[in-house]
Amino acid sequence: MEKINLKGLTQEELTELSLSLREKPFRGKQLFEWLYKKRIDSIDSMTTLSKAFRDKLKTKAEICNLKFVTSYQSSIDGTTKYLFELKDGKQIESVLIPPRTAFYDNKSLKLDEQKRLTVCVSTQVGCPLDCIFCATGTMGYKRNLITGEIIDQVIQIEKISQKKITNIVFMGMGEPFLNYDNVIDAIRIFIDGMNIAARRITISTAGWIDGILKLANENLKVKLAISLHTLKDELRNMLIPLNRKYNLSKLLSAISHYYERTKLRVTYEYIVFKGLNDQDDDVKLLTKLARKVPCKINLIPFHSISFVKPGIDLKPATMEEIELFAQKLRANHLTVFIRSSAGEDITAACGQLAIKSGK
Ligand code: SF4
């Protein structure tokens, strides 16, 4: 019989497991603390538990850890990309983003934001959504990550880097809302077990509406980011094929519902493609959008054209062009940030390392 992976179980699940082993309910809390506060990686390291209980536990359960394969650090900005191997040999990526690289125009960052250390986590091996600008999409879908594999990305990166992670973004390989339950369990463990505030956790979606509507009812207070990139359906159908299922009108009404329920500002991610979505009519459309629901817009430089399908003409906007676009939006009182080209020299766009490794 396959053993249960303790890493990834919530406190309630650990309590149930303890009861099934004829132990007292408080054992669940002890296990939770050993796993997520002390972050041990073997059952024998739980030294406050009796040897008898540990032995009993070992017959049913184990602690699975991600295997570190390699990492690459950007010589430009310190962004570090990690490649991890899962128990079944598949590989995923996670990225550690230091504060000064998060935003191009970072002089305006508050002190709190300057101390920010963010891990971008993966939620799936591959991804079925096939966005045109994304390397992961070219891999197709392999499988969902289990909860333990999601949280262990942060635990392992803290161990390797010896740095305290302050923020988490679900923006790595995969569409988080296609792995909804495991992502929500991971978030609960980040908040309750690892002491990361909900407001420092962001779920980024390509626009999976079912997930947005469900999240609105969770009362979790995490942030929601939408990979928007355009407000024109025809162009969005090409960039994000999911738009054919959930078009902009459906997406925007789900976002309005989310705001009505949560009163939380939404972030729109917007990769700027030269001549394609950076024109004056795009400024008008974004301005109209920003009047519907309080939001901020992150403009993202596009630098990873190597995997764009042949025949598709996507050109990166220059930094000057992005700045000009930002100025026009700000002139209309929109809150706009320009994200830096983090890790340009280490192929930091999601999926590129895992594809290179062939796993
Ligand atoms: S951008 Fe996100 S949702 Fe789109 S293919 Fe890549 S991983 Fe999937």
Strands of the biggest beta sheet: in what spatial order?
A: 3-4-5-6-9-10-11-12-13-14
Please identify the oligomeric state: single chain
Number of DSSP strand runs:
14
How would a crystallographer describe the biggest sheet?
10 strands, mixed
Evaluate the radius of gyration. Answer: 21 Å
The succession of helices and strands, N to C, reads: EHHHEEEEHHEEEHEHEHEHHEHEHEH
CATH architecture of the largest domain: Alpha-Beta Barrel
For the residues shown, what is the average pLDDT? 90
Verbal overview:
- The chain has 359 residues and is α/β, with parallel strands linked by helices.
- The protein folds into 2 domains: 4-62, Orthogonal Bundle (DNA polymerase, domain 1); 67-357, TIM Barrel (Alpha-Beta Barrel).
- Helix content is 35%, strand content 18%.
- It has helices spanning 11-20, 26-36, 51-60, 99-102, 111-114, 147-161, 180-192, 209-216, 233-239, 248-262, 280-290, 319-331, 352-357, and strands at 4-5, 61-62, 67-73, 80-85, 91-97, 118-120, 124-126, 141-144, 167-170, 201-205, 223-227, 266-272, 295-301, 336-338.
- The strands form 3 sheets. It has a 10-stranded mixed beta sheet with strand order 3-4-5-6-9-10-11-12-13-14. A two-stranded parallel ribbon has the order 1-2. A two-stranded antiparallel sheet has the order 7-8.
- A hairpin with a 6-residue loop joins strand 3 and strand 4 (80-85).
- The chain is elongated.
- The mean pLDDT is 90.
- The site of iron/sulfur cluster has 12 residues, from loops.
